[in-house]
Design goal:
The protein has about 260 residues and is of the alpha/beta class. The chain has one domain (about 1-260): Rossmann fold (3-Layer(aba) Sandwich), CATH 3.40.50.300. The chain is built from 10 helices and 10 strands. The chain has helices at about 45-55, 75-80, 100-110, 120-130, 150-165, 180-200, 210-215, 235, 240-250, 255-260, and strands spanning about 1-10, 20-30, 35-40, 60-65, 70, 80-85, 170-175, 200-205, 220-225, 225-230. It has a 6-stranded mixed beta sheet, with helices on both faces. The protein binds adenosine-5'-triphosphate (ATP). It is a peripheral membrane protein. This is ATP-binding cassette domain-containing protein.
């Protein structure tokens, strides 16, 4: 479904702050695969997601989505095929518009690539049903402005906005990190349900090493702009958190003590 082939990105090339953020990264995700992405601060995780979303042009390499070469496709055009959530629940929503209006915009944009929307009765019933499925009482808050919702409620709405038209790919950039533990758990439960229901190909960044091992079907670890570990199947199932940390240390020449603190267990 997603094919990232030998991509490279250097920021501020030719300046004293030059940074090689992605170094020959290749990553293939099969349809329905749910991959967690972990790594220390500055490893290049968000940059990889930005590359897939089309935030910048690559220096080298190609990106294919469902067989289509999207390497030179503009970001706003990719957004109809790629749903993305960020740590900040306000990102991607219009806080002064109601839940229903935000959903209608997302729905219209994904269908026609347009910002104009008309709130149809049938769409409204569809949104209500989808929100009721979350079990957060959001179906009763359809006329509430999004800015007035709690972080967890907002992230649930954003999740629905990003998946309402069944994108080809879902990118989750630490989307539960800013929430309190119970809201994070609820949003993660909804995420798992939507991913399963829609058989969505998903890439999720997390700093929680336990979550990285036990959510989804595959775990990838990045360091210094490279993928250094790719775990799936039995190897992943049998892996414990201390073993994964140890493996990380081996790959990084014994830097475990410094890096361990950057992962929350
Ligand atoms: N637009 C940019 N301009 C300059 N440098 C950038 C830009 N985007 C990312 N970088 C640099 O690339 C490196 C990787 O950043 P990135 O945000 O991908 O890391 P990350 O693995 O997501 O880290 P974190 O877990 O802290 O979010 C960092 O050193 C960052 O400063």
């Amino acid at each position: 479904m997603l094919e990232v082939n030998h991509i490279d990105k250097t920021f501020l090339a030719g300046t004293p702050n030059e940074h090689h953020a992605l170094c020959d990264v290749s990553l293939h995700l099969k349809k329905g695969e749910f991959v967690t992405l972990i790594g220390t601060n500055g490893a290049g995780k968000s940059t990889l997601m930005n590359a897939v979303s089309g935030t910048f042009w690559l220096d080298r390499g190609t990106i294919l989505l469902d067989g289509e070469d999207i390497t030179y496709k503009k970001e706003h055009k990719r957004s109809a095929q790629i749903g993305r959530l960020f740590q900040d629940p306000m990102k991607g929503t219009a806080p002064d518009m109601t839940v229903e209006e935000n959903l209608a915009i997302a729905y219209a944009r994904s269908k026609r690539g347009a910002l104009q929307f008309a709130l149809k009765k049938s769409d409204s019933a569809f949104f209500r049903e989808a929100l009721a499925d979350f079990g957060m009482g959001l179906e009763e808050r359809m006329k509430t402005k999004v800015g007035l919702l709690s972080g967890g409620q907002r992230q649930a709405v954003t999740l629905l906005m990003s998946t309402i038209a069944q994108p080809k790919l879902l990118l989750l950039d630490e989307h539960t990190a800013a929430l309190d533990p119970s809201a994070a758990e609820k949003v993660m439960e909804i995420t798992n349900r939507i991913v399963k229901q829609q058989d969505l190909t998903t890439l999720m960044i997390t700093h929680n090493i336990n979550q990285a091992l036990h959510t989804g079907t595959r775990t990838i670890m990045m360091n210094a702009g490279k993928i250094i570990l790719d775990l799936s199947g039995e190897e992943r199932e049998n892996m414990t958190v201390p073993e994964l940390l140890e493996l990380y240390a081996q790959k990084n020449h014994g830097e475990l003590d410094n890096d361990r603190i950057l992962f929350s267990e």
